[in-house]
Amino acid sequence: MQETINSTLKKPSRLPLSLKVKYTLRARMEKGEWPVGTQLPTLPQLVDQYGVSRATIRTALDELEREGLIERTRGRGTFVIADISKQHWLMLPSDWNALIAQIEQLHVQFHYLGDGSSALPSDLNDGTAADIYWWTSRINVRDGLPYSFNTAYVAQSLYEAHRDEFEKEAVLTVLQRHFADQLSSARQVLTIQSSDAVVAGHLQMDIGTPLIKAIRIAKDPDGRILYAAQLHYRASCVYIEQDIKMS
Fold first, then answer.
1. Are 213 and 232 in contact (CB under 8 A)?
2. Which pLDDT tens digit goes with each residue over 140-153?
């Protein structure tokens, strides 16, 4: 197993070796192998385990320390100080009502980035689009941590009917409150991507950090898109739970 890890670390890629080591060490914390209070192996031990230089290990530990996951004390060693095995607190529901209930329960805090009116972007248009949509871009925050960066689009006529609520509240809760009878179908597509400079900046992550991108679209009975959104979540916060049908 260790030989496999070492060969994978040394396999050529665009990712710096120090980041590979960092993610390898972080994974051991996420799996609960190193719970809070655990003393990490010494620098020579880590060098021997992963077959990399001292400088590479130091850089990886610097990153973990910067994230507040470990604490290094001269003469005592390096200790885990954060429980990241429980960081995956946000479930992405596959059910519309569960999604609405989750949003209401979270009491999300918003940082507004802007809004306006425009046509629906082509990558969100998989049906019949309205002529114009009101859009809003926001960062969702919990306990001071930005965990998602979202841009939502609502058919302009719906927005005009409840402008104040759409601007102050979660878009989906307002949509459900006033237009549930007009919503006939909804679809969500999830993909795992690497964060670019824009998303990384908004979510306070390193460029290239894994994230989950969600596309959500809700339509009326005639197939007209009433709501569409593109959402980017910190992958480190998310888990997905689904029932598996047995045939």
1. yes
2. 998 788 999 999 99
Helix (H, G, I), strand (E, B) or coil at 247: coil
Helix (H) / strand (E) element for 166: namely: helix 163-168
145-155 and 210-219 as β-strands: parallel, antiparallel, unpaired? unpaired
How far apart are alpha carbons 186 and 206 in whole angstroms?
Answer: 32
Phi, psi of 96 (to 5 degrees): -60, -50
pTM of the full structure? 0.75
For 183-239, write each residue's pLDDT tens digit.
999 999 999 999 999 999 999 888 888 899 999 999 999 999 999 999 999 988 888
- Residue 54: burial class (beta carbons within 10 Å; 0-12, 13-18, 19+): exposed
Count the alpha carbons within 13 Å of 75 in the hemisphere toward its beta carbon. 0
CA distance 127 to 223: 6
Q: Which residues contact 11 (CB under 8 A, 6 or more apart)?
A: none
